[in-house]
Amino acid sequence: MDIKAYLAGITDAIEGRSLLAPTELHAALIASNSTVAKNRNTQKEEQAQLAKKFLANWSKQKGVTSDPLGYSYKINYAGQGKIQSKDIISIVVKESLLDGTVVSDMDLQDKSLTLPLDNYPPLFQSAIKHLQNHGEITFIVPPELAYGDDGYPPAVPPGASIMYTLRIADVKPASTHQR
């Protein structure tokens, strides 16, 4: 970014002057919006192709199953000890793009999220219900269950599928946690 041009633009805006006539400015904005829309559509198409290739290989792996919610998953470790709907569950999540780019990794940040099972978003509730205490699951989520067509710029492109690896760090009965 050209800082001088940026500051000149701010100064012009404050002082109410413009280097472009209103019709030129309008045309430039339309052209800019068109370019952004084309780039966004290109990114969505690229993500769709990436997901298609990835899922073709992923679905052949042993243990990969489809969930009725619309994602596919593989249990890495089932864990031990049943989880009840009112239990307080601590999870650690790694979120990645299908090309391997890590979006966020709670383990690396030494963080976890602790909530009653019923308070997690439906997608995470569903994944957690496939596990027991200390279990781990990897699941591939289509864009409509993740960030949608808009993505989450700049980390998640438009139309990206997401790979989550979710590990249950701990489970406590609701009554123990309320004390």
UniProtKB/TrEMBL annotation:
Organism whose genome encodes this protein: Providencia stuartii ATCC 25827
Domain PPIase FKBP-type positions: 86-172
GO biological process, alphabetically ordered: protein folding
Keyword annotations: Isomerase, Rotamase
Name the record gives this protein: Peptidyl-prolyl cis-trans isomerase
Coiled coil: none
InterPro entries registered for this protein in UniProt: PPIase_dom_sf (IPR046357), PPIase_FKBP_dom (IPR001179), PPIase_FKBP_N (IPR000774), PPIase_FKBP_N_sf (IPR036944)
Catalytic reaction list: [protein]-peptidylproline (omega=180) = [protein]-peptidylproline (omega=0)
EC assignment: 5.2.1.8
